[in-house]
Amino acid sequence: MDFEHAVAGVDGVEAVRRVRSLGRGETTRVDVVVTADPRLTLREAHRVADRVEAVLAEEFGARDVSVHVEPTAQHETE
Fold first, then answer.
1. What is the DSSP string of the chain?
2. Which end of the chain is more exposed for a tag (fewer CB within 10 A), N or C?
3. Which residues, other chains included, contact 8 with Cβ-Cβ below 8 Å and sequence gap of 6+?
4. Which residues pair with 68 in a beta bridge?
5. How far apart are CA 19 and CA 33, in angstroms?
6. First-to-final CA distance of the chain
């Protein structure tokens, strides 16, 4: 499984816009941009980001993960 596929399966993630990684295992640095329902509260969007971080740590050993959550544009949901 690759990073994008793992992130796409996270509850609350509607789309994966970008994944960048460098390194391997515990030294892996991953930057991810995902979209989520624009009606989520800040707290709920933060939980989505936490779930993304957890999946990348569990499945790939990544410890340095940055997740940016953007609202899904209306045209992306139609």
1. --HHHHHHTSTT--EEEEEEEESSGGG-EEEEEEEE-TT--HHHHHHHHHHHHHHHHHHH---EEEEEEEEPPHHHH-
2. C
3. 15, 16
4. 33
5. 7
6. 28
In one letter, which amino acid is 24?
A: R
pTM of the model: 0.89
Q: How many CA atoms lie within 13 A of 66 on its CB side?
A: 6
- Strand pairing partners for 16? 34
> What averages of pLDDT result for each successive group of 10 residues across the chain (78 residues)?
93 97 84 97 98 95 94 72
Distance CA 78, CA 75 (A): 5
